Amino acid sequence: MSDNLLQELHPLFHPKNIAVVGASPKIDPMMMSQGNNYIKGSIEQNFSGKIFPVHPKAKAILGFPAYPRVKDIPEPVDLVIFTVPAEASLEVMKDCVEKKVKFVHLYTAGFGESGRDDFLEMEKKLIDLARKNGIRIVGPNCMGLYCPEGGLAFQPMFPNVPGPVGFFSQSGQMAGMFVMNAAAQGLRFSKVTSFGNARDLKAHDFLNYLAQDEKTKIIGSYLEGLNDGRAFLEAARKVSSQKPLVIFKGGMTEGGSRAAMSHTAAIAGSSRIWRAVCRQTGIISVTSLEELVFTLSALQRMPLPRGKNVAILGGAGGGSVTMTDQAEAEGLKVPQLSDDTIRELETIVPPQGTSVKNPLDVGRRFFAGDNFNRVMELLRDDDRIDALIFMQPIAMFNRFGGRTGISMLLKQTLAGQNILKKPMILVVEKNDGFGGDRVVKEAIERYHAANLATFPDFRLAVKITGYLADYQAYLDRQ
Question: CA 420 to CA 377: how far, in whole Å?
Fold first, then answer.
């Protein structure tokens, strides 16, 4: 891959015209035709170029004139999407060569991942033909591209507003699930790529591209294995000092590794080696899709903690004990506050039924007058504390304090964020016993709009706080 990576891959994410081979003239209410989904996705993303469906018999598909073959299209085409069976792909590729197409996305599966020699040979012929004629390939066996700014999406329900998150995935299903789950948390995307078997463009190519792309500020990935591990890790080492790189790695067990091989022809590898490599290269390694989404949300919305010492606010009784245990089990520390901080807190918080040592159980007076802001000032000035984890049982607040109580909590939290000057990690739990789903959703949306990260439970919050503190420590060492 050349140094001019941005220029080289720009037409892939911003094609002037696209063709979809395998689109169907049939009405498809169940969205089973992936070819049609690409067309619908581009319509929803306001694609500015021309869309050419390719079908041997249809005159028009989804309102666009259809053509029997790629070479029959009367205008230049930057990107051709294959949604035809593997057996038909070679003939379509020959048409792409004749048409001087720049990029091909092979949604088509049934190649090397099948393990069959005849399919592997067919894949080799396809790739060789493309390579000899300067055509770059995404795939095969992948969902392809989503770029709101370029007008591309492999599903029509994706958000059409761009954002700072770049993502590349070996798995198409994981790419789709990631977009939908992350979008539900208010994240928006620069470029998302599902690249499957990676017979041409590989993981490190997409990583290097996102590293250079000024629209991408943070990068996520789902990987099962690497065709060229050395090139990828060299790229990761360079990238992670400039932009955070969060990877959810599949195939970490014997069974998972076997499944990865049959899924994307990926050789997975040892979890112990993977974790060691991540520590050396600055990769933030997560263990689930949920962790991936909420880590990226935190990276977008809050500063990195300078260390692992946290204050916990909002616990009570046994909850304080178990939360401290959970935090320290994840590698965080819940230190006693400084003597000066404790002395000042004791002038604000009544001694009966409360605690000011950490975790903080501060009672109702916490919200009276200027007390909340004063607590934020004390935590800001206490050198023993790197971050605040703030438990907010919004549904319970709503039950007992109504909309007025919720409004007060949100207002004070948003003001407190500016005073604290340290990461504020909000745990906004949904408590089924108190209802209030709508109120919880509204609170989360308001916090996100104010650039505050939220987490649905304490365990996830402390785990991700640990990830971010480790990443800050890596940056400090560089």
Answer: 6
The span from the CA of 146 to the CA of 101, in Å, is 20
Task: For tokens 């490599």, name the residue.
Answer: 277
- CA–CA separation, 38 and 210 (whole Å): 22
Residue 4 CA: distances (Å) to CA of 7, 132, 191, 208, 379 = 6, 20, 18, 11, 48
pLDDT in tens, 240-266: 999 999 999 997 655 544 544 443 444
3-state helix, strand, coil in the chain (%, to 5): 45, 15, 35
What token pair was written down for 222?
């789902």
Tokens of 456: 């649905």
Question: Cα separation of 462 and 99, whole Å?
Answer: 54
| Residue recorded with tokens 């016993």 | 433
**Residue that the structure tokens 């918080």 belong to:** 349
272: closest CA among 249, 290, 295, 289?
A: 249
Q: Quick one: which of 194, 284, 200 has its CA closest to 239?
A: 284
Distance (Å, whole) CA 332 – CA 310: 7
Within 245-393, where are the H helices?
A: 254-264, 271-281, 289-301, 318-329, 339-348, 371-381
Query: Is there a contact between 164 and 300 (Cβ–Cβ < 8 Å)?
Result: yes
CB 291 within 8 A of CB 460: yes
Structure tokens at 216: 């991408």
What does the pLDDT look like over 166-194, one tens digit per residue?
999 999 999 999 999 999 999 999 999 99
Percent of the chain with pLDDT over 90: 75
| 61 strand-pairing partners | 64
Q: Which of 38-52, 117-131, 302-316, 429-443 has the lowest mean pLDDT?
A: 429-443
Report helix, strand or coil for 339: helix
Between CA 260 and CA 328 the distance in angstroms is: 34
Report the pLDDT value the prediction gives residue 225, as an integer from 0 to 100: 85
Give every CB contact of residue 370 below 8 A, 6+ residues apart in sequence. Answer: none
* Cα 276 from Cα 291, distance rounded (Å): 19
All residues at 6 or more sequence positions from 246 whose CB lies less than 8 Å from its CB, including other chains: 218, 219, 220, 221, 283, 284, 286, 292, 295, 296, 299
431 pLDDT band, cuts 50/70/90, is: low
Q: Give the Cα separation of 213 and 95 in Å (integer).
A: 32
What domains sit in the chain, N to C, each tagged with a CATH number?
5-142 (3.40.50.720), 161-301 (3.40.50.261), 310-477 (3.40.50.261)
